[in-house]
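User: My collaborator sent over this chain with a note saying "see what the structure looks like." That's all I know about it. Can you take a look?
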Amino acid sequence: MRKYDRDLLSAAYKNHQIKVDLLGLKPLKLTDWEFWDPAEEFEEESDEDDQTMEETDEYYKAIINAGKRPCYEMEQVVPGDTDMDADGPILDSIYYKDIGEPGKAQDILMNELIADLRCLDAHAHLGNL
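Assistant: Without extra context I'll predict from the sequence alone. Here is the result:
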């Protein structure tokens, strides 16, 4: 302990673990899709200046050369997103962030996580607030 204006205590973790299985979360489902062919995907891909990208661009060339690969879709969990006419909680939080109310956006996202920790969109958007 060091002496400052007040007494402080510091410590170091010797061992820490996150035991996700103790949370009792149901694993997100993966749906098997057909193979993804990057050659088809990037065939007419454009960059931000609306110029068609060449297959010779090094970034795309490496991806295309890797060939077809399996494609999957992960289950999306967004509690409270049942009204097809509404934007839903994730888009609502983006709206509040964009108008300068990050606290309101955070509340919405935290409520999503309270309802279901598997809401990956809420985790991602909290990281961007």
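A starting point for your reply to your collaborator: Helices lie at 38-41, 58-65, 89-98, 102-115, 120-126.
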